[in-house]
Amino acid sequence: MAILTANGVALSAPVSIKTDDEIIWSSNTGRVANGDMEGDVVKEKKTLTIEWGLLQEPEMEKIKNNVIAGYFPLIFNGGGGAGFTIESYRGTLSAEHIGELDDGIYWYRKATVKVVQK
After folding, report:
1. Which domain of life is it from (predicted)?
2. Does the global pTM surpass 0.70?
């Protein structure tokens, strides 16, 4: 089973996945006169920071075609029962290019993206 599946397509295994559990507070949250914080927790959302190492062009294309602009389902199969499925959107997808080598294959040194739960 793939570690990451985006838009129904298994992606290459990343070298690093960082998960953040973000707390979303109500719009009236803030400090009051005595310095205490007041407000209500509305929801918890996940943010994933994903990094891939060396990739060939077809692997990078699979990422570009499925970690898309707009909303998409993302499945993370973490170990120890840490897996989850979220409806998500992405931030900037960054890639470091190596280029075409003597093997005739276009290579990327790495790619990174943040994926945020809708």
Report:
1. Bacteria
2. yes
Strands, E assignment, 4-70: 4-6, 9-10, 16-25, 30-31, 37-38, 41-52, 55-56
Express each pLDDT in 24-57 by its tens digit.
999 989 999 999 999 999 999 999 999 999 999 9
How many structural domains does the chain have? 1
The answer to the question of residue 56 being in a domain is yes
Residue 85 pLDDT:
94
Domain housing 110: 4-25+39-117
Taking a C-beta distance cutoff of 8 angstroms, is the pair 48, 19 a contact? Answer: yes
Residues of the chain with pLDDT under 50: none
Q: Is residue 30 part of a domain?
A: no
User: Going by C-beta distance under 8 Å and a sequence separation of 6 or more, which residues neighbour residue 89?
Assistant: 69, 70, 71, 72, 115, 116, 118
Q: For 80, which DSSP code?
A: G
